[in-house]
Amino acid sequence: MYERIINLIGMDNFKKINNCKVLLVGCGGVGSFAFTALIRSGFLNITVIDKDQVELSNLNRQLVASLDTIGKSKVEIALNMAKNLNKDIKIKAINTYLSSDNINILDKDYDYIIDACDTLKTKVELIKWAEENNIKIITSLGMGNRINASKIKITTLAKTAGDPLAKVLRKLVKEHHLKDNIKVCFSEELPIKKGKVDSLITSPGIAGLLIVNEIINDIVKLS
């Protein structure tokens, strides 16, 4: 299954990916693409956390969503997806909403945290947890109400501008005396409308893939 990856980056680098331990919080638009990219890239140790069930409105952009999965747990679907791709994968699926009340369920030895959740309080808790435990984290910012996925990039929270979510998160990070040099997946495109958040598949999909690409390049360091 992974022959073309091994030919590209070498067996030693591929084993580094195999051994990497990743926490993914959120398995929606961004998270489901990140999850699938992790599985197909050879990551074998993944914890995925989400409490949501698939809804009809998820069909346009979430890889866990199909007509057959409406009403089912997203993390259970993700677990089945992973097992259908690689029988040897070690997936820990946690069906809950992560918060300050239960964040101690997390391990302290993750190599990377992918924050693909929607809740600002949870984002702050994850940034705090990562800082306290010296874990690398990439936080996904606003991808809704945008149509130009070419504007999405990986940068640091301190360098973001124009994104309302990033503005609030910067303020909260400062209030909690946390570092603002964490990596974020950020769109330079301003939201094209206010109010209810709507989305194409392209922006959250590209964001999820870019986050995993950033992790792979950080591990492999070929370029």
Biggest sheet strand order reads 3-2-1-4-5-7-6
By CATH, the superfamily comes out as NAD(P)-binding Rossmann-like Domain
Residues in helix, %: 25-40%
- Quote the average pLDDT: 96
* Number of helical stretches of at least 4 residues: 7
Please state roughly what percent of the residues sit in beta strands, choosing from under 5%, 5-15%, 15-25%, 25-35%, 35-45% or over 45%: 15-25%
Please identify, by name, the CATH architecture.
3-Layer(aba) Sandwich
The radius of gyration computed from the alpha-carbon positions, rounded to a whole number of angstroms, is: 17 Å
H/E series: HHEHEHEEHEEHEH
Describe the protein's architecture and organization.
It is a single chain. With 223 residues, the chain is of the alpha/beta class. The chain has one domain: NAD(P)-binding Rossmann-like Domain (Rossmann fold, 3-Layer(aba) Sandwich). The protein is 38% helix and 15% strand. It contains seven helices and seven strands. It has helices at residues 3-9, 11-19, 29-41, 74-85, 120-132, 164-175, 202-220, and strands at 21-25, 45-49, 90-94, 112-115, 136-140, 152-156, 183-187. A seven-stranded mixed sheet has the order 3-2-1-4-5-7-6, sandwiched between helices.
